[in-house]
Write a structure and sequence with these properties.
This protein is of the alpha/beta class and 340 residues long. The protein has twelve helices and eleven strands. The strands form three sheets. Strands 9-8-7-10-11 form a five-stranded mixed sheet, sandwiched between helices. A four-stranded parallel sheet has the order 4-3-5-6. The protein has a two-stranded antiparallel ribbon with strand order 1-2. The longest helix is centred in the middle third of the chain and has 22 residues.
Length: 340
């Protein structure tokens, strides 16, 4: 019975191709080796470039994270995933509707199971995971896995929220998508994702070129600090790309810093549907007379839209634009790259 079900699932997987959809072209199915430049990570810190050559399309993939899973599915990759960890997935901002069936076919793994011993037992040939998972208590370094013949693909804009050791940009986000496309010989699909993302940015800029730039801050109320995703973080770069005035801030900010900036719009990272983080900012008496409170321009934003958004970059930009320019745009929360 189990063998019959496995065979049926394997037959159905091409039909569950996700929002990227489609079959590989002859060029994309090429078996020629592909070399990409990713990053080397140790103890949640980017050390520098990591050159990796894929002699063949990965066949045993462990993917950690909702955005990482969506990137695979948006590229049309559903075969070969042996474990998927749905971090950053929540009821309000979950896996896109067009990807849910494909995601449900991935063998699930709990976040607590992400450790070197567990993954060694799975014998993957590729691990796709954010920087935080390459630490002593999790997976060790990328070099450790590469030394065992296991490829690692780390989203480039997933540096620690409280650090500014690397400038995060949309360009880096698009590079990661292109490199993932190259590794899976899905170059044409990757290029469409990149083109659609840049097209949305260009459209928003053209429609708002005569409007005054709103000053925007993106805040993350962490346990020990208030992280600011300023101009050198991916969230800040996305907001700036669609016309925001995003200040260059330190990685961690205090009440005085926020008061000094007096932003017109504030996005606060939320982790569940309760959105308690928004209430904490709204109820802070120090912010009572600031522009964003006076004009009711305080908005929740999910972590997946501001931290290594990957193929959800287009959704994050649309989400920001809807709120930065109220009444002018009405972008859907989820973009399906397979729909023309």
């Amino acid at each position: 019975m189990k063998l019959w079900f496995a065979a049926l699932l394997a037959a159905l997987l091409p039909a569950l191709g996700g929002c990227g959809g489609g079959r590989e072209t002859a060029a994309e199915m090429s078996s020629a080796p592909v070399t990409v430049e990713n990053i080397s990570v140790e103890n949640y810190f980017e050390l520098g470039p990591n050159i990796e050559t894929f002699s063949h399309v990965p066949e045993r993939i462990v993917v950690v994270g909702a955005n990482e899973s969506e990137t695979l599915m948006d590229l049309g990759v559903t075969r070969g995933v042996i474990a998927a960890v749905p971090t950053q997935d929540n009821p309000t901002f979950g896996i896109k509707a067009c990807n849910r069936a494909a995601f449900a076919s991935f063998p699930p793994m709990k976040r607590s199971e992400v450790n070197a011993e567990r993954l060694l037992a799975l014998q993957p040939d590729l691990i796709v995971a954010q920087q935080e998972f390459f630490s002593k208590n999790r997976l060790g370094s990328t070099a450790y896995w590469n030394g065992k013949g296991v490829h690692t693909m780390v989203p480039l804009n997933t540096t620690a929220p409280g650090k500014l050791n690397a400038v995060e940009t949309i360009a880096r986000e698009m590079k990661f998508i292109r490199d993932m496309g190259a590794a899976f010989r899905r170059d044409a699909t990757a290029e469409k994702i990149v083109a659609d993302t840049y097209a949305r940015i260009a459209f928003i800029r053209s429609e708002t070129q005569d409007r005054e730039k709103p000053k925007v801050m993106i805040l993350d109320l962490m346990s020990s600090i208030v992280a600011s995703y300023g101009r050198d973080k991916i969230a800040g770069d996305m907001a700036a790309a669609i016309g925001a005035d995003v200040p260059h801030t330190t990685a961690a900010v205090g009440t005085e810093n926020i008061m000094e900036e007096n932003p017109d719009v504030v996005f606060v990272v939320v982790y569940d549907e309760k959105e308690e983080e928004v209430q904490k900012i709204r109820e802070n008496p120090a912010f009572r007379h600031l522009n964003f409170i006076q004009n009711n321009r305080l908005y929740p934003i999910p972590l997946k839209f501001v931290y290594g958004p990957q193929t959800r970059t287009i959704d994050a930009i649309g989400y920001m634009a809807n709120r930065m320019y109220p009444g002018q745009f009405d972008f859907a929360t989820e973009y399906d790259f397979h729909v023309e």
